[in-house]
Amino acid sequence: MPYVDNGGLRLFYEETGAGLPVLWHTGGCGDSRMWGRAGYPASLPGYRHVLFDHRGHGRSQAPTGPAGHHMDCYVEDVIAVLDDARISRAVMVGYSLGARIGYAVAATYPGRLAGLVALDSVPSPDEDPVEDLEAAREVLAKGTKAVILEMAEAEAEPPPEWLVEHLCTTDAEVFAGSYEAFATEPPFWQVAGRITVPTLHLLGVAAGDPDWWALGQAAAGAMPDATAVALHGLGHLQAFWRTDQSIPPIKRFLEKISIADS
């Protein structure tokens, strides 16, 4: 199984298939196995799927302190994987935190991405880094399992048991690091107009949450080549595991990128 060293951390990734490279990046909890378990690569044949365990997740080593959870480090991890796999350009699919990392990669290394699918995460224009750090402290105080269970209970449809169990395996310090990274990411709304990478904002829009959909539309409108697609009635976890809704727009997007990239 391939590993790449970045800044002294041993990072795991694996590949399957052939064709246009697609790098899959998970959120604050879980690892690359959740993409396979949910059925994403199997439902999208004809691509070279690169499944990456984000630092501290799954089979990748974790940094020893907060400095290792700077957004710049997360971005360089993605580039290290692409370099090690000898991939010049890839489509990146990021869920939750992975979407935010995708925006940062697109802003910093636009030539390395053929496209970006941002699954259910758009920074708010008034996001406060102080609140991100408070969220990190809450994760450390409650533990990963308590936070994930609260998230699951807030949704209209219970997530599969395997997904909850998988997410809960992530160490609380690593999960908290995700929020610390939010506080260090490039200011999305200041750079959005310069992110030229074709982007699909794929947003779970639960009933009674029009502001979230409006935010996604505004983000797409602020970027030169972006669209927003609503996954109606879905919460944050549902946006991942309800593949009946999430995979079709991803498939259409990849097909469009494949044609443009050929």
Descriptive report:
The protein is an alpha/beta fold and 262 residues long. It has one domain: 3-Layer(aba) Sandwich (Rossmann fold). Helices cover 46% and strands 19% of the residues. The chain has 12 helices and 8 strands. An 8-stranded mixed β-sheet has the order 1-2-4-3-5-6-7-8, sandwiched between helices. Helix 5 packs antiparallel against helix 8. The longest helix has 19 residues. The chain is globular.
Kindly list the characteristics that best describe this protein:
Rossmann fold; 46% helix; 12 helices; alpha/beta; single chain
Short structural description:
The chain is of the alpha/beta class and 262 residues long. It has helices at 33-38, 40-43, 71-84, 97-108, 129-142, 144-153, 161-168, 172-182, 188-191, 210-222, 236-241, 243-261, and strands at residues 3-6, 9-16, 20-25, 47-52, 90-95, 113-119, 199-205, 226-232.
